[in-house]
Design brief:
Strands 15-8-1-17-16 form a 5-stranded mixed β-sheet. It is elongated, with a radius of gyration of 28 Å. The longest helix has 22 residues, at about 140-160. By secondary structure, it is an alpha+beta fold. Helices cover about 30% and strands about 35% of the residues. Residues about 70-95 and about 100-120 have low confidence and may be disordered.
């Protein structure tokens, strides 16, 4: 099983996640070119080398209209990060990572504060963001859905934090483009990497308090805390906010589980760096590989019968497969008084065991069933469809443990063989260049 493990010992932010995932690709520079071709208004991505505590990684620089937004650095190691409220104003808190966001530090109910970047007072609703994502960006449909789902998590959190409906949440224009860039980049990278599972470590959120224009707030900020409900988090000794709402929403959306690193055979490691320096390396580490969940425990149920016809056994096997059995097979055996019999084996997951037992009693003549627990090791499997001059042909690809196998769907080869009046082996030769 392809597993992505995200180590968030220094929190999470959108650009750090994007940079860490970028390092897992064989051609990161080519992917950055794809990002710049998306058409996000005024946005340009740049991949920069970065070193933290002797570790070399990547910083993802995002410029808006030619400028990378800078930190005001009120706390000596923090940066401002934008949130939204129900009054059309952005909320910007100081955070423990400097990722280059606007410097207004607004938390206002009027327009008396400067809006950080060229004095802009434009704001975007969730509907406006959806118009940008679906109407102007060259993203696959699934990635568009992912981007909007992540944004919806952020809007819901802001709605809860400020006590206003989601429809009244507005995002400052500059911060909107920056966040759209981070979220789109991560969602596109996740689509490209296509992990079967994403395991995230407990998230370090920082500690202490953070100052904004309305006063001093606890860490994590209210919106971040709302998003991280149900997620294992901890404070640690770093003063300041390490996990941004964007980072929290991306982790919450893509994670299939939270916890320690699973047993896995790592194939690639990426480091996504923040700008600031701490005693600990200011980064997210992403590890991609095959997890130990390719091995699992299953139930083996067995029963002996000596009074069923072959047709009745075949019908029982069909019913057991239809009920969710992983495998059903028979073995000829000798029974009491030298009678020939059949041993029926049924493999299933633990959750399906009771269903299998019920069906075995229902469709066979047995009066007793035995159970064994087995550990099995399986290759990852996926189906690819090949477009050929003879029509579509499906191919099952199995890989893992250093092995890869391909098997073309018999029904598809049989269709070609029938249509052309040739053998299955000749049909395989037409499609693959090799005989079966």
């Amino acid at each position: 099983m392809k597993t992505l493990y995200l180590e968030c010992g220094m929190g999470a932010a959108g650009d750090m996640l994007a940079a860490a995932l970028l390092e897992l690709l064989p051609d990161p520079d080519g992917f950055v070119e794809e990002l710049n071709a998306l058409g996000i208004p005024g946005v340009r991505f740049e991949r920069e080398a970065s070193v933290k505590c002797g570790i070399t990684g990547t910083h993802m620089a995002v410029t808006i209209n030619g400028e990378e937004e800078e930190s005001c650095d009120h706390h000596g190691h923090s940066h401002s990060h934008e949130h939204a409220d129900g009054h059309g104003h952005s909320h910007e808190y100081a955070h423990g990572h400097d990722h280059g966001h606007v410097c207004s530090h607004e938390y206002a109910d009027d327009h008396s504060h400067s809006h950080g970047h060229a004095g802009s007072h434009h704001h975007s609703s969730l509907h406006d963001i959806e118009h940008i994502v679906r109407g102007h960006l060259s993203l696959p449909a699934k990635v568009q859905e992912d981007v909007m789902a992540v944004y919806s998590l952020i809007a819901e959190a802001e709605s809860h934090a400020h006590g206003v409906p989601v429809t009244e949440i507005h995002f400052h224009e500059v911060g909107t483009m920056d966040a759209v860039a981070d979220i789109a980049a991560v969602c596109l990278l996740m689509d490209r990497l296509a992990p079967d599972e994403v395991v995230v470590s407990p998230v370090h959120v920082g500690s202490g308090q953070v100052r904004c224009a309305h006063g001093i707030l606890p860490v994590p900020a209210p919106a971040t805390a709302f998003i991280l409900q149900g997620v294992p988090v901890y404070g640690g000794s770093v003063r300041g906010e390490l996990c941004t709402p964007t980072g929290a929403a991306l982790l919450k959306y893509f994670a299939t589980g939270f916890g320690s690193m699973p047993v896995m055979r790592t194939r690639a490691v990426g480091y996504g760096m923040g700008k600031k320096d701490f005693e600990a390396a200011n980064c997210i580490r992403a590890m991609l590989g095959e997890s130990g969940q390719a091995e699992d425990e299953i139930c083996e149920l067995g029963c002996n019968v000596d009074d069923m016809t072959g047709e009745a056994i075949g019908f029982a096997m069909d019913r057991l497969f239809a009920a969710g059995a992983l495998d059903v097979y028979t073995v000829p055996i000798g029974m009491k008084k030298s009678r020939p019999g059949v041993l029926i084996h049924v493999m299933c997951h633990e959750a399906d065991k009771e269903t299998m037992i019920e069906n075995m009693f229902k469709y066979t003549t047995t009066i007793g069933i035995r159970e064994n627990r087995l550990r099995r090791y399986v290759l990852d499997r996926r189906i690819e469809t090949l477009e050929t001059p003879y029509g579509a042909v499906r191919c099952k690809i199995s890989s893992g443990y250093g092995a890869e196998r391909r098997k073309y769907e018999h029904e598809d080869l049989a269709r070609i063989a029938k249509e052309r009046g040739i053998s299955i082996s000749e049909a395989a030769l037409l499609v693959t260049g090799q005989r079966l």
